[in-house]
Amino acid sequence: MTVLVDRLFSPHGARAYLRWLTSGAHAAAVASARPVTQPMENRAETPDEGIEMARSGVSAPVVGSLLESVESAGLTPPNRCRRGVCATCTTNLVRGTVRDLRTGHLIEGPAPVRLCVTEPCGPVVVDL
Amino acid sequence: MSVLAAAPHLSPEQIEELGRELDDLRRRTVADLGQRDRDYIVGVLGAQRRLELAGRALLFAGFLPPAWLAGTVALSLSKILDNMEVGHNVMHGQYDFLDDPELVGTEFEWDTACPAEQWRHTHNFEHHTFTNVIGRDRDVGYAVIRVTPEQPWRPQNLANPAYAAALAVLFQYGVMLHGVEVEKVLAGDKERGELIDQLRAIGSKLGSQALKDYVLFPALAGPSFLLTLGANATANLVRNLWAFTIIFCGHFPDGVATFTEEEAAEESRGQWYLRQILGSANIEGSQLFDVLSGNLSYQIEHHLFPDLPAHRYAEMSVEVRDICQRYGLAYNAGGLVSQFGSVIRKIVRLALP
Questions:
Q1: Is A22 in the B-facing interface, judged by CB distances under 8 Å?
Q2: Which of A104, A119, B155, B318 is deepest in the core (most CB within 10 A)?
Q3: Which residue of A has its CA nearest to B43?
């Protein structure tokens, strides 16, 4: 029965739905009161150079964009447009700084970044 | 039409300069993102949830006609806000920078029949990368409606206006089936495993949506079962008609260009920007209209900067208009009646060869 009720409101489940429905602006406000970036627990240390992948433990040299670099190390993160449009490759930058290849602006981790249109500025750790 | 042929007065260097100006507008806007954007989207999200709660609550008293009407209006508005200003925009990753677990672009799910994951592929990737490229952007007529003379005429196009009317009424189901590529399935070209996975996800989403709107809340209303069911169906219909109207005004009014696959291949960044300008149209209206349209009233700005918070498009449009004027490019904008009238006339006209 619980499974059935949970499925009623999949993909979030019934309790999540009811919480969502009754929380109104309050929950959104609570969520928004958190700082824009939150610290993440990760076992990977910031590498001396190149890209460290926090979950797989693989490291990669920088050969172009973050996406091209991690692909050169054998990883295949989801991606489609490869030009910063579709947002499929959005991944958390755990530590370090990357540059947006379109505009040149810098993004400091922890922050979600698009692998296909950013390149590392120095050593970085990504959540892959 | 090729991007270069559509703007023959611009040299390749000028097109790249246009791209640099738009990148600069992007850079300045990104540098300014912050609390204002958080306050805005949290405010809209709060309004949407209050509307849904109020709507569902009022419908428990649906046997009183004013309560039924108010509840239906509130629920319609909730669905419109959820789909357009919140869902569509959040799923573009516009609010990823906030790092708010409720506003993650790749995880958001919305109050409509189409599974978000399938929509992210057809919309964010196919439509936004290959905007108005016939054969790649399946939003050009949604595989059933002829919206440009560059689509070859087929006898079934005689029913063009009927197909469009049916899609308007059933819009959420049209969006739901869009990723399945029914035309490919019928031609036997669809990969079986992919089709099964898609249909399974659709079945699950459709089931939960139908149970929520057509079984559970009506059942909770007890003797008002049919009144609540009718109200929920009406809210879905209102959202369908509204979304159809706004979305069709974005790319199908007169003056919007379409492109062929060969012509859009090997595009530079400037040419990509130029194609987005030439392939989109805005709807002029009030601020409330902008919110209810998910700011797709600024379709041109949305296509130039699909991942920037949509409530910024109004202020960015001042500069985009100026850039278009300086580069001699038409900035396609008009009121809702004028743009939608143009779309309807085109759909009727293109029913014939």
A1: yes
A2: A119
A3: A25
